[in-house]
Amino acid sequence: MDRVETVSGKALPLGYSDVDTDQIVPSDALKRIERTGFGQFLFAEWREDPDFVLNKPEHEGAVVLIAGENFGCGSSREHAVWAVKDYGFGAVIAPSFADIFKNNCTKNGVLTVELPEDTVKMLLDAVREDPEATVTVDLEGRTVGGPGVNEQFVVDDFTRYRLLNGLDDVGLTLAHADDIESFEKTRPGYLPSVL
Questions:
Q1: DSSP helix/strand/coil, 22
Q2: Which of 44, 92, 52 is nearest to 72 (CA)?
Q3: pLDDT grade, residue 195 (50/70/90)?
């Protein structure tokens, strides 16, 4: 997993609330066995509408996704996070997230930022008015900056540590490789071993 310190650039003003993981990535895409290449399926059904915000050329290259409350609800499919990340988004800002989606983001290097609904609306309005506006999410300083917005956000220390150091679950385990190896060497030979 890549380290996440700052995500800064254009933003996509999605703004919808209660966006579930089936809408983020359709079930047809789940037949793939890779963890990459899911960006092409992001909001696939909605992208059939030429007026859908993701189809607009002025939002091409956006790295911050701005959504409404309860983003990522529905099933627990991790593929939804893979699609968000693979498309190029490094951060998602919303008033609230579904817990499983938020947890999956942490494990895949996507920063989720919860801000008050009025602040999210200010960002949405600013980006809709000026698609070139820059939105900056600074994990180190725990701040979000954008047109008319300079807001602190809350992230627990462990999640912040994981993201700043690029540690997924495997990385966290491997950080203790020496201790694991030492322990395994002390186990009796008749017990199962990972060595």
A1: helix
A2: 92
A3: low
**Which CATH number applies to 6-186: 2.20.25.90, 3.90.950.10, 3.20.19.10, 3.40.50.1380?**
3.20.19.10
| pTM value > 0.70 | yes
Structure tokens at 95: 């008033």
**143: β partners:** 138, 152
Largest Cα span, the chain: 68
- Closest-CA residue to 133 (of 53, 183, 61): 61
**Tokens for 128?**
């809709």
The pLDDT tens digits for 141-181 are: 999 999 999 999 999 999 999 999 999 888 888 888 888 88
Name the token pair of 172: 């966290």
Q: What are the residue boundaries of the structural domains of the chain, listed by start?
A: 6-186
Q: What is the pLDDT of residues 69-81, one digit of tens each?
A: 999 999 888 999 9
3-state secondary structure of 87: helix
